[in-house]
């Protein structure tokens, strides 16, 4: 068995893991963002991402019937398409906040957990009911041309696009959090809500911005899910929700950087357990056992901060 | 915000959530056209996946089943008006249980036909037995569903997974001459019984098992497994699962450049959904079998397809639609055999002894209620469509199946 070199087994698996990791990471960053700023676990994050995938498909269908794809140059309608999906996801993010989180601001943190699980079911079933033949598997349109750089199957346009998009999106999130005033306000709120409010930060607008940002991020995750697998089903969101949440927990739930490490780690565990003989049946189980081990041994996550509760 | 409003909000959200998740809800599409006339009414139940990932297979079966009774009601052959009550089993045992409980407590139910998923059938069989309502299974193929203990209340018009795998193995391992097989299946009871049944056949034909991988049926990512399979260099992959998983495997095989390996499986992947999930261009050259006989080849089959077409249903005929239609024919024949009053008790006896003519020829049941007509025929995906094997360019030699030596 050729292990190294171009097109070899190990390199191919490494690429599989990175691609899977990119998708988990984006969903996990969504989770961390919400948890970091508002201390809530938004369980419908995976469903928002899949909603993004379906928005893209729906918009593409409309564009195609309206003749826009033939009329406009490809980059223009592609940007328009992404724009539509991003706006819809951001709106769904804000709706999530207004319907399932804000009403429970002062109640126990179990409430938003439950309400976002319920909202996830609503999103999933709404797609199933209202998208044309929504309950059947759907083919994602080929938005990224087939072919590859230099003829290497691993460097297909799709793979390279996915890695670049993930990298750029994460970079944008970091710059936003680090450099912009709103980003700083979000970080301040993550550190200490009451103090942030006293310092004159408008908590409401920061919360809404967080959900807009999260929605945008998840719409990109939705695009990547569609582009990478080529096929989606309305109920795929729960899978990505659980994987993204686990990745965020491993990395340190409130730490956005930890989510990247967590997402990659989870993907690497899954892929490398899968390649053992007969291992595929255990891939998810092993990945979740790893999550449990992390929760027991390092509950704050890889990059999380230790919280000391004073009694 | 006050507490009261909070709880109202939460309750409303949860209520909407459960409402949408569709537990055993009655389906509007199932009510017969025309409505009851002055004849006395008897009712038959139908259960199948009308929501969820298998909704298209289940809805097509429901359409075929309802159509048979519409035709009966129009013909006036029976001094009764037969009403179909269609329920969703959502492919899940828990939804199926609530569906069957609704059916057995409905007044006037004399027979039920049900299920595409064996776990759903496993859940409803004891309930039908304890209520003495005959259940004719139209599409669930788990071996153990028909048995001496379940006879005569439980009968089945479609072949079991074992019967299907026997036919498939003969085609692939003997007629087409594939030798080195890798098995990928899902961890559901369907996947596991397929893996087992096909492995037995492989021993019979002396084929080599290169490896086995079982994955949860929610899995989307087969790339890691496929890279491993590529290294193992089999001639063919047996997929023991259903459309969505099969389609993902096939499209990811194309991505990984595995053009020289055949993908084949039993009727679980033999549907339009498979081609959508794989993408039409990727699906090319997939080999599968369908239970029954090719409806386009027989006169009754052509009439059935034309009638179905004329009804303008939103889903096309599925792999098991002819079976649900024939399950209806079995029930109709048994109703005629009752000669007079139709009761569930009489129906149990008459169904078990039935000789019904349908799309697939004559259906009779053996001593455990299994059909004695295990016909299946082979199909291959050609230019984005399932084409009967004999009619395909692959059989004439104009195209070659992947990996065929």
- Major sheet characteristics of chain A: 2 strands, antiparallel
Note the overall shape of chain B: elongated
Structural class of chain A: mainly alpha
Give the number of DSSP strands of chain B. 14
Regions of chain A with pLDDT < 50 over 5+ consecutive residues? 1-6
For the sheet with most strands of chain B, the description reads: 7 strands, mixed
Task: Please write the string of helix (H) and strand (E) elements of chain A.
Answer: HHHHHEHHHHEHHH
Q: Which oligomerization state do the chains in this entry correspond to? A: heterodimer
The number of E-state strands of chain A comes to 2
Give me the side-by-side strand order of the main sheet of chain B: 7-6-8-9-10-13-14
Terminal Cα span of chain B:
73 Å
**Count of separate structural domains of chain B:** 2
CATH superfamily descriptor of the largest domain in chain B = Response regulator
Which structural class best describes the helix and strand composition of chain B?
Answer: alpha/beta
* Averaged pLDDT of chain B: 87
Uncertain residue segments of chain B: 15-34
| Rg of chain B, nearest Å | 22 Å
Can you give the helix content of chain A as a percent range? Answer: over 70%
H/E element order of chain B: HEHEHEHEEHEHEHEHEHHEHHHEEEEH
Query: How many H/I helical runs of chain A?
Result: 12
Q: Please report the distance between the alpha carbons of the first and last residues of chain A.
A: 59 Å
Can you tell me about this structure?
The complex is a heterodimer of chains A (311) and B (405). With 311 residues, chain A is mainly α. Helix content of chain A is 71%, strand content 1%. Chain A has a domain at 24-232. In chain A, helix 7 packs across helix 9 (203-229). Chain B is an alpha/beta fold and 405 residues long. Chain B has two domains: 24-159 and 297-374, Rossmann fold, CATH 3.40.50.2300; 162-291 and 377-396, Rossmann fold. Chain B is built from 14 helices and 14 strands. Chain B has helices at 3-20, 55-75, 93-104, 118-131, 161-175, 189-204, 223-232, 243-255, 272-278, 280-283, 299-310, 321-337, 344-352, 393-396; strands at 41-48, 81-88, 109-114, 135-137, 154-156, 180-186, 208-215, 236-240, 262-265, 287-291, 356-358, 361-363, 376-382, 385-388. In chain B, helix 2 (55-75) runs parallel beside helix 12 and helix 3 runs parallel beside helix 4. The longest helix of chain B has 21 residues, at 55-75. The radius of gyration of chain B is 22 Å and the shape is elongated. The chains are: A mainly alpha (311), B alpha/beta (405). Chains A and B meet through helix 1, helix 5, strand 1 and helix 11 of A and helix 1, strand 7, helix 7, helix 8 and helix 9 of B.
